[in-house]
Write a structure and sequence with these properties.
The complex is a heterodimer of chains A (about 240) and B (about 220). Chain A is of the alpha/beta class and about 240 residues long. Chain A has a domain at about 10-110 and about 160-230: Glutaconate Coenzyme A-transferase, CATH 3.40.1080. Helices cover about 20% and strands about 25% of the residues of chain A. By secondary structure, chain B is an alpha/beta fold. Chain B is built from four helices and 13 strands. Chain B has a ten-stranded mixed beta sheet. Classes of the chains: A alpha/beta (about 240), B alpha/beta (about 220). At the A-B interface, α4, α5 and α6 of A face α2 and α3 of B.
Chain lengths: ~240, ~220
């Protein structure tokens, strides 16, 4: 296969060419699979007017890890597409909520399964789809629905991305990926929906062919840049120190 | 929560979990519902599904034995049972939308006797927290809700109609509260079990819709 390695030497280098106005998705559900090192590099890089996509906006852990809320605080974000603009428990506010409520940043609130499917559709050449999710709720008000076989469905559009930042356990130089346990979540979908997928990898990067083809979770076809996460403290790892409040 | 009347959080989770039937695929939402996977349900064979693609998880991991890359919907480190599998989010929500979940158990702010419930947005709030709740509510075969029977100011969370924006309409089959187990009937709530130490009259007074009770009303059995 392609002889050219996709391995990049640093996170800074991996995000260096990201222009202002890009649409970037961050993988992860809670801590697993979240690209903390790439988000930190984007904070340092400073690209502005970004549209960010992610399940949540972060800030539920202490100490806090790099998250969408921090990019908002850094003045880099125009809009966020996510499943939570507020915490599930009102007694546990997340940092993003106040920026959204004050109008400092725009947001589009999307049910989690719809968010996943919109990216899957974008990567699979499906422009839109009908889903029963959110029918009869405020989110469906004024939007196109259709009754199919007697049930009402809501029309949802594909969500294509410029960049996807994801984390994986293992990668080879071609970009074939394996995730460990709950690391997988949105990450394979975001990789298919993005023009450029950048992966931070837990383990030393393997030569192409070292991952059995039957055991590849995401094909290197969808992966463009790979960076090994250095050991802590240089690299950011999920750790037991991040307790939920 | 402590100091409120009736069942504590784990007992409410136990009450809901004991309604699961052998062989069910069960999805547990954030908060009290995640505690259902701690309930001892004997020989009953249940497959727990978490929206982040974990199929077949068990109890919360013991201190020092956590896999930090393995979490349930609430972000807690859990363990896997033999036969477990991991899928990505589109497949996980395909399981949900495809009708492969027998019951989803969720927390809520309010539930109506028509089976509507509200759990994503407070009154006057801009935005909210939906997560997977709308997908699960619309597509699981059954929805069970676990919530405190009353608000901090004593208002009922069991109502004739929700006054908060709903998550889904007409889907709730059972409601477990600190006061007992209730079924929305359309006209009111039918109480199937009562928590120890409470009376039907005081529960009726704390319920915002007509309340009926089953014959020979059973008292909730407590673990241990």
């Amino acid at each position: 296969m392609a002889a050219k390695s996709k391995v990049v030497g640093s996170f800074r280098e991996a995000v260096a060419d990201i222009p202002d106005g890009s649409t970037i998705a961050f993988g992860g559900f809670a801590m697993p699979g979240a690209p903390f090192n790439l988000i930190q590099a984007l904070l340092d890089h400073g690209a502005k007017r970004l549209t960010l996509v992610g399940n949540s906006t972060g800030g539920a852990q202490r100490p806090r890890m790099p998250d969408i809320g921090m990019l908002v605080e850094n003045g880099q974000v125009a809009k966020v597409i996510c499943a939570f603009t507020a915490a599930t428990r009102p007694t546990d506010p997340i940092p993003f909520t106040k920026y959204y409520e004050s109008g400092e940043v725009d947001a589009e609130l999307v049910p989690q399964g719809t968010l996943a499917e919109r990216m899957r559709a974008a990567g699979a050449g499906i422009p839109a789809f009908y889903t029963p999710t959110a029918v009869g709720t405020e989110l469906a008000e004024g939007r196109e629905t259709r009754v199919i076989n007697g049930r009402e469905y809501l029309l949802e559009y594909a969500l294509p991305l410029d960049y996807a930042f994801i984390r994986a356990a293992r990668a080879d130089t071609f970009g074939n990926l394996q995730f460990h346990r709950a690391q997988r979540n949105f990450n394979p979908l975001m990789a298919t929906a993005a023009k450029c997928t950048i992966v931070e990898v837990d383990e030393p990067i393997l030569p192409a062919g070292a991952i059995d083809p039957d055991a590849v979770h995401t094909s290197g076809l969808f992966v463009h840049r790979i960076v090994r996460v250095p050991p802590a403290p240089e690299g950011l790892w999920p750790s037991k120190r991040q307790e939920r409040r | 929560m402590s100091g409120s009347k009736g069942l504590n959080r784990q007992q409410m989770a136990d009450l809901a979990a004991r309604q699961f039937q052998d062989g069910w695929v069960v999805n547990l939402g954030v908060g009290i519902p995640t505690m259902c996977s701690n309930t001892d349900i004997g020989e009953t064979d249940i497959v727990y599904h978490s929206e982040n693609g974990i199929i077949g998880y068990g109890q919360v991991a013991a201190e020092g034995e956590e896999d930090l890359n393995l979490v349930n919907a609430g972000g807690q480190n859990v363990t896997l049972k033999p036969g477990a599998a991991v899928v990505h989010h589109a497949d996980s929500f395909g399981i949900i939308r495809g009708g492969h979940i027998d019951v989803t158990v969720m927390g809520a702010y309010q539930v109506s006797c028509g089976g509507d419930f509200a759990n994503w947005k407070l009154k006057g709030q801009k935005g909210g927290g939906i997560g997977g709740a709308m997908d699960l509510a619309a597509c699981a075969k059954r929805v069970f809700i676990i919530l405190e029977h009353t608000t901090r100011d004593g208002g009922s969370r069991l109502m004739s109609a929700c006054d908060l924006p709903v998550t889904a309409r007409g889907v709730v089959k059972l409601v477990a509260t600190n006061f007992g187990l209730f079924e929305p009937t359309g006209k009111g709530f039918l109480m199937h079990q009562i928590a120890p130490g409470l009376t039907v009259d005081e529960i009726r007074a704390a319920t915002g819709a007509p309340l009926t009770v089953v014959d020979n009303l059973p008292v909730v059995r407590l673990a241990g």
